[in-house]
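Example 4.3 (complexes with small molecules)
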Amino acid sequence: MTPVNEHPGEVPSSARKSIFRATILNPLAPERIEFFKDGALAIDDGGTILAAGEYRPILRAHRGAKVVDLAGRLVIPGFVDAHTHLPQYPAAGLHGKQLLDWLDSFIYPAERNFTPRAAARLAPVFFARLLSCGVTTAAVYCSVQKESTRIAFRAAERSGIRAIIGKAMMDRNVPRFLRETTEQSLRASEELCREWNGADRGRLKYAFTPRYAPSCSAELMREAARMARASGAYIQTHLAENRAEVEWVRRLFPKAASYTNVYENAGMLTERTVLAHCIYLGARERLLIARNRCGVAHCPASNLFLQSGMMPLREMLDSGLRIGLGSDVAGGPTLDPFATMRTAVYVATARALAPGSRARARMIGVSTAFFLATMGGATALGLEGVTGNLAPGKDADFAVINPKLFDGGCGVYGQADNAETIVSQLVFLGDERAVEMTFVRGRRCYSAEWSERPSR
Ligand code: GUN
Ligand code: ZN
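Answer. The structure with zinc ion bound is encoded below.
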């Protein structure tokens, strides 16, 4: 890779404002991507966005700003991974089993290995990988170990990424080596929440993480929800991912009207709740989620990898739900958000083409996938005022993409001058090799070649 200028992204500390000159893609709504071919992103030295638009007017409006020339590059908002599992990273790519067998065979043993020593090795790699893929925000599950979760927070803090992290809570129906008492689980989670929720001016947040209804007693879920409300922290869990899981929940909670109703009864459906998968939901359950303004993490790659099913994305979007994309590693095989975006398009297409389907109306396009991977994710996590696109006043969370590096740098791409072509190639040809730099709050947290050290 040959950089166009010598040190792109280097911003001298004396400059109060910086202007990044590049082609800008700014997702506003599922089908509305703002596009400036010769564009600019202006940020202040506190890492806040001042403007995104045409280069010349922005240059005039911010005289004296340091100009960083990113000729030939795209500046896009950082991606949001709305659902992923840190301790499962070494168990990614193990195909062939469905959810409940997969958890028993591969995942619980992997999570048993999430000792503090393992966490100290794994967490920096995990966050570095997310940043190198252009991900600036992630909602992350750890396993039950308190100290390992603390180590994960420290690694996230050092890496510069924006993250919502929680210790998994499980007091039943899991192997003894991961099972906690209800009291232990609550105390450890409360302690971590006290330590980390809101750290670094809100860059790090805590999520109470009752794993899913089968591994949690009603009391555990109720108390976790109460603690989350009291502290303003998040709740994250899995919902209706797999038919056998749904049937199991029906047997475990015979009085509940539905799986979603189990969480409703526990007080878990809040504006700060993120529900992963949501494949097998009835119309009433969808309404319940919409009414409580919960976020939904759509995990299309995981849903295929674990043979779980296909979430009705188009219908869910039409219900007004707040939806983002999740890698769900290790349910999904990769942290790469480009892979998750194109899988979302493929899955919606496969669903639309299935016999008996009302065909094309249910497909989604590349703009929707790009929106879901950025602004949709931010909205699902209640961070729409902070990140997700390049609106003035938001934190400067963005990635610099070099289209010349699409498809491994074959040199054929990168000349397009219209948004449709660029977004389409971004979604279908992009991968982490095309990500040159990633910034969170204006701080460079990843650089492909020029420097390993973050700088402002
Ligand atoms: N349901 C409960 N735990 C998990 C998990 O770790 N991954 C996925 N995909 N689904 C789950
Ligand atoms: Zn998951």
